[in-house]
């Protein structure tokens, strides 16, 4: 079933080229010979397989598969002194993938990265995002370029603050990457510039906050990890979206943090067959950690600085602002982003070996 | 936290309009009065809530939330005598959602449906699919309209058979709906028409096959449900996609079948820390059930008959064919499809109540 020979594996697609279930159940090796490059096996059905030492090492030697190394760095407010940045020109360079490798690697490490010196147009922003992976269509559309309707300028002047949250908690698979590019900010004309609210942006490292919770209050961490909640999007007449099942606020894979899902406004009813008081108590602690000054990274979006972040890890929010802001951006699926990260940072054969033995 | 009043719930988006964690921890009801339409509560912080009897019934009375009823019908080869069909005109009627309700309801019931009397153009097919939900972009693109390159006609003349499989097993969330519309089939000119291979299409109800396995061999069902496997897409130079973690062939939610993931050619290595022989034995039985004549539904794709099926439940395949086939189609995310199904078949308030207490 795992033969790697050119007859058994389509060399273009690396898919199996044969019917696993046509292999005799009682197949056994007739002849095993160790060579310099690997092992040759002659099977009882007279098929001949060759396994390289490197394939055997990664698949057989240990039951712990090799993982592609991701240096995860948790961060708090101090990240503001040196936030991760990559230059637009480097990312978009057609001759080299070094810039893309750096961008995706920083997003993996910190959960976000700015692409600086970006052209201040929606077209260039869209090209940048599509170079990472296909843009995800939702009921809101795909790539968006949002200009508040000038006719509504009066009511649009005040734009409310949003607490830190993740987007699309109501999807089975929430959006992977999310991007914002502030193309322009026009203050209202009837106020002195010094009094205008600027609309600060907020990022919080959800993995750092979750580790804080786990350290300070392991029982509360366990409650947010184990209690599965309903989430919903009911905001448009034609749409009433919910995930395929209930999901907890904190998802782990083994001991490792895997995904944060948090938008308290879109949360359904806490199920009555769990200890409801204990859940609220845990959520209260979680909410307080998210609002600690040393966990919050506040900054100003600027034209030319595209923000891209991992919506499975990093929460975002903003303070109130006045005037008109034009922002463009999009969602990118996480599978496509992770594929881009792997292939620009590791040898292709290591990536495929790792994918084929993923846990 | 669950107050339904117009001050607490944004009446447009049905999102919470207040900070859950600003509610005093020791809040308690000061006054409870039962009215004809529901219950009024005056809280100790002097906020006044009103809960309708219907809201209380669905959220409090039992811990078993009301589910929107989906009459699931499992099927085998006999479905060929009366496959589910809906007329294109009815689905696309702008005045009524009855046709869309019927289409989505049949896909929920049977896992597939034909849209008959469809205009034989890619444009109309795309409009039909977008009326269900946004089209999902992947590394293959969005809506596709595939015409084999005429310059390659010689090598494209033989098009191999594909055994029953589900698509995109390598995504964290595999494609929800998949659609095929055969726009034309031009046989090769150098053969009498009677000898030309037509390319029969195959559907297999994965839920029916899984129930057969569960009945005939519960231990094998349990192995395919519990052993998590790696899946991968490595077919293009720039792409090496894998899901966020390993997933089993059969996923359940409680006792109910939830999702089938099966493309043996894209499967990675069976993990060595499980009973590998037992897994292969179970997969062999599963594969044999999928190939039983009474589980297979064979038919001919035809221009004007758009096939739409649930890729989480129904496997598809085809026999070999000759000549040139032009096929268009797309993926639609399952969340969007399920939203469309719910809103066209049930009252909006029942849908939202159900979403807010999903398990």
UniProtKB/TrEMBL annotation, chains A, B:
Pathway listed for it is:
Amine and polyamine biosynthesis; carnitine biosynthesis
One GO biological process this protein is involved in is:
carnitine biosynthetic process
List, separated by semicolons, the cofactors it needs.
Answer: Fe(2+); L-ascorbate
| Domain (TauD/TfdA-like): residue spans on this chain | 78-331
The yes or no answer to whether the keyword Oxidoreductase is present is yes
Provide the Gamma-butyrobetaine hydroxylase-like N-terminal domain boundaries.
1-57
CDD domains, alphabetically? CAS_like
Listed EC numbers: 1.14.11.8
Q: List the molecular function annotations (GO) for this entry.
A: iron ion binding; trimethyllysine dioxygenase activity
Q: What's its top-level EC category?
A: oxidoreductase
Q: Which UniProt keyword terms apply here?
A: Carnitine biosynthesis, Dioxygenase, Iron, Metal-binding, Oxidoreductase
Coiled-coil region? none
Which Pfam families does the record cross-reference, listed alphabetically?
Answer: GBBH-like_N, TauD
Q: Which reaction(s) are listed as its catalytic activity?
A: N(6),N(6),N(6)-trimethyl-L-lysine + 2-oxoglutarate + O2 = (3S)-3-hydroxy-N(6),N(6),N(6)-trimethyl-L-lysine + succinate + CO2
Q: May I have one GO cellular component term?
A: mitochondrion
Gene3D superfamilies xref list: 3.30.2020.30, Clavaminate synthase-like
> Which family is this sequence assigned to?
Belongs to the gamma-BBH/TMLD family.
PANTHER family named in the record: GAMMA-BUTYROBETAINE HYDROXYLASE-RELATED, TRIMETHYLLYSINE DIOXYGENASE, MITOCHONDRIAL
Function (record text)? Converts trimethyllysine (TML) into hydroxytrimethyllysine (HTML).
Q: What is this protein called?
A: trimethyllysine dioxygenase
């Amino acid at each position: 079933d795992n033969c790697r020979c050119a007859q058994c594996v389509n060399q273009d697609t690396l898919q199996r080229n044969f019917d696993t279930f046509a292999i005799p159940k009682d197949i056994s090796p007739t002849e095993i010979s160790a060579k310099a490059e690997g092992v040759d096996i002659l099977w009882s059905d007279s098929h001949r397989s060759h396994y390289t030492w490197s394939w055997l090492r990664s698949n057989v030697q240990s039951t712990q598969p090799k993982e592609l190394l991701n240096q995860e760095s948790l961060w708090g407010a101090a990240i503001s002194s040196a936030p991760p940045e990559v230059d637009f020109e480097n990312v978009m360079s057609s001759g080299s993938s070094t810039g893309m490798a750096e961008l995706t690697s920083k997003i993996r490490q910190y959960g976000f990265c700015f692409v600086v010196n970006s052209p201040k147009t929606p077209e260039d922003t869209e090209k940048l995002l599509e170079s990472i992976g296909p843009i995800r269509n939702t009921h809101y559309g795909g790539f968006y370029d949002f200009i508040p309707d000038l006719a509504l300028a009066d009511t649009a002047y005040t734009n409310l603050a949003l607490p830190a949250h993740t987007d699309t908690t109501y999807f089975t698979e929430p959006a992977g990457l999310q991007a914002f590019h502030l193309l322009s900010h026009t203050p209202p004309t009837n106020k002195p510039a010094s009094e205008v609210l600027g609309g600060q942006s907020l990022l919080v490292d959800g993995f750092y906050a979750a580790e804080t919770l786990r350290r300070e209050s392991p029982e509360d961490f366990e409650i947010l990890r184990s209690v599965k909640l309903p989430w919903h999007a009911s905001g448009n007449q034609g749409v009433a979206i919910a995930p395929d099942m209930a999901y907890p606020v904190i998802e782990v894979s083994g001991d490792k943090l895997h995904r944060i899902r948090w938008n308290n406004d879109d949360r359904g009813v806490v199920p009555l067959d769990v200890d409801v008081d204990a859940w609220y108590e845990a959520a209260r602690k979680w909410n307080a950690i998210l609002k600690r000054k040393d966990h919050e990274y506040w900054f100003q979006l600027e034209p030319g600085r595209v923000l891209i972040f991992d919506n499975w890890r990093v929460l975002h929010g903003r303070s109130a602002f006045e005037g008109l802001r034009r922002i463009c951006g999009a969602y990118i699926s996480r599978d496509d982003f992770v594929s881009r990260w792997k292939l620009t940072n590791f040898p292709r054969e290591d990536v495929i070996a790792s994918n084929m033995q993923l846990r």
